[in-house]
Each structure stands twice: as structure tokens, then as C-alpha cells.
Predict the structure.
Amino acid sequence: MRPQDLIQKKRDGGELSPEEIALFVRGVTDGSFADYQAAALLMAIFLNGMSEAEAQSLTQEMLRSGEMLDFSDIPKPKADKHSTGGVGDKTSLVIAPLAAACGLAVPMISGRGLGHTGGTLDKLEAIKGYRVHLSLPEFREILKSVGFAMMGQTADIAPADKKLYALRDATATVEAIPLIVASIMSKKMAAGLDALVLDVKTGSGAFMREEARARELARALVATGNSCGVRTEALLTDMNQPLGYAVGNALEVHECIAIMRCEMNEHARPVLDLSLELAARMVSSAGVESSLEAARERVQRALSSGAALECFRRNVEAQGGDARVCDDPSRLLDLNLREVRVESPHAGFIVKVDAAEIGNAVAAIGGGRTRIEDEIDAAVGFLAEAKIGDKLSAGDALGLLYCRDETQAQSASARIRAAYEIEDAPPSLPNQLIKEVITE
Ligand code: URA
């Protein structure tokens, strides 16, 4: 079958067979499909969608385009968490050590921040010396000895995704749910997991802003994961404001270590609550505990006993970082920064927050990237003190901005101030952190 026959079939609303999908993915990977043909097929998929069977075949073929990591020599259940990303979304740094302290092996392959969303690798690199570029043998050794290891995507894992993602980006087809599912799940499935918990975010700082679309994505991810033999569930969670307290790499690591030291600021509570729940679901799905209730208790004990912090410390040491931050998280902070109080312009209730704008404001002063090759300034950021539903007087703090100079102070504080909608009446509905659990 020629590429144009596949394009025609999908263009006319047909369903591609597993063999035809295999042909497409192989053609993209080995270059026998021209970019314009792959792009045309992507657009046909964008417009006509894919059946569950097609999405599963696409995931399987993208997975097969690269290497499977084999951790079968590690005698522990393997589990991971994936978040669709957001602003202040730092839970991986708490979840990985919590789950590892409960007896799981967590091979976490993470990404960098781009645009308004942060990335776990950038956060970890805020710890002096921390190495995220590991060889596979090093990654395996740390996973074995510590219980979790963190690194970036390698060229050998689902290489078809790299090509397809670049084409999707250039052809306005990123948002197609079956393409997102295959992209995320082909990379996650490569780690040979027993269980996967997904945190699908919805709201003003999320990749999928609309709740109905986020739910649709969550359901499709869960169906695909389960069909690939990995016990998969998803939480649909709030991203209508920054998660917890800090936005900015070093500030976020500080927040996570404070949580693991059981000395967190109350503003960080949503990070703790969400981390405990996601970790408990990893522990129960992977079969370490037979009930979710028992898993929740186990995860709570791993936190309160200090076992999770110890696990984090061992990971930082193993990955070359300065583990003294575990005893004194203030070592992460740069005391030369300017601290600027961002104030509410008038009295009222916070009814809405443009979380993406806060992420973008921090990225624009160096805290994130607008292009993948940009350098970042790990120290700058924002501490979000005021939350949706809070009642403020004029001049009360929305939060604290940490930046380098007056120009940054002016531009970022104006953007952040404008991201908060403050009205006379409180919001009609409370903001719910976990909106739904999707298991099938
Ligand atoms: N994240 C991914 O890895 N792929 C997508 O397509 C979207 C988000």
C-alpha cells in the first residue's frame, strides 16, 4: 500500500488496520514516508479522529519504533506517574521518593519546561551538581539501589514520536487526542511498567483547558494504558491557579523538600494532598497494598517517618547533587534576588486566575523557556500566597516575586497582578483539587 492510499482511506473516514498503522509509523521513522505525506495523514487523523483500536495500534507501533527498557532484574513492582503539566506542578519530586519508600521501583523519564509549564528536569537541576543526563546502566543502577531514578528522554525511546511531534507542531495537529495519547503512552510504556497513574490537568494553566476535553483525554489515556497491559488510572485535577505555593525551579524544589521535612508552609498543602493521593494510587495499582485505604496509610507513614526524605537524599547523592539541601533547603535560594510584593489593586474576592500568564511571566524573567534551547535562571520565581476564593483588601499581597532587577520587577509584577480577577462577590463554586478519578 502506498502512503497516498493510507491518506485517502483516512481522509474518507475509513479505519486504518494495525498493518496500515505499522506501515505509517515505520515509514515516518525510516524516512520512506515523505514529511508532506505524514503531515497529510496527521491532518486526516486530526479531522476524522481514530477509533480506540487505531489509537492503541498507533501507540504500540510508536513504542516498537524504539527500545524497551528492561528492568526485570529489579525484583520490585515498577510504577510511574505522568502529568500533562501545568504551573507550579512539582509533585514528581515528592511522589517518586514516597512511592520508592513504599517498595516500588520508579523509573521516571521526565521532560523540560516549555512556555508556561515547568519541567521536572529543570527543577532537579536547581540542585547544585544534580545530573539528569545518565547512561542507561547508571539509570538502572540508581533505580536498583535507591528505588527511583530521574532522567530525560533518550533518542532510543519511541523515536517515531520525536519526528511525529515535530510534524504535528508544524502543522497545527498537536491537539488531536489520539495523537496525544500515542505520544505520551508510547514513551511511558517503554519503561516496562506494572502500573501508571496519570494526572490530567484542566484549567487556565493546563494543556487541556476545557474540562470536557481533559476528561476525554484522560479516558483515552487510561483505555490505551490498560489495553497495553499496564494498570492505568487517571485523576482529573485542577490547574486553574498555580499548584501550591511556588512557581520557579529552585523555589519549587525548596517547597518539595519542606513538604518531605514535614515543615511546609500551609500554601503548599495542595501539593502534599495531591502527591499523597497519586503515590497511594501507584502503590495500590502496583499491588504493594491490596486496598487504596491501606496504600494511603502506607504513603502517609513514608512521609511522616522521614523515609521519603531519606530516599530523596539518596537519589540526590546518587545523581551527583548537593544532598545538603535535604537538611537545609534554604541552600537552594539565591539571597541576591530582589523580593517584590505583588499587591492586590483593590478589595474583593479572587474569582479567577490566569495560571498560564503567571507561568509566562516567570518564564519571561528567565524562570522558563520560550524556545527549547533557552538558558534558564533557576532562582527566579513567584510565591503565590493568595488563592481563588480568598478575600483581600486593597494592597494585600497576591504573592512574592523573586527577580534580578527593576525592569524584571516592573514587567513581571504587572503581568502577575493582571492575571488575578478580583470581584465584589465570591466565586460561585469552590475550587476542587481532584475533580474525578478515571479507572476505565
Ligand atoms: N505531551 C507529549 O508528550 N505529547 C503530546 O502530544 C502532548 C503532550
Summary: The CA atoms of residues 353 and 420 lie 5 Å apart. The pocket of uracil is lined by residues 174, 180, 183-184 (CB under 6 Å). The longest strand covers residues 195-202. The radius of gyration is 22 Å.
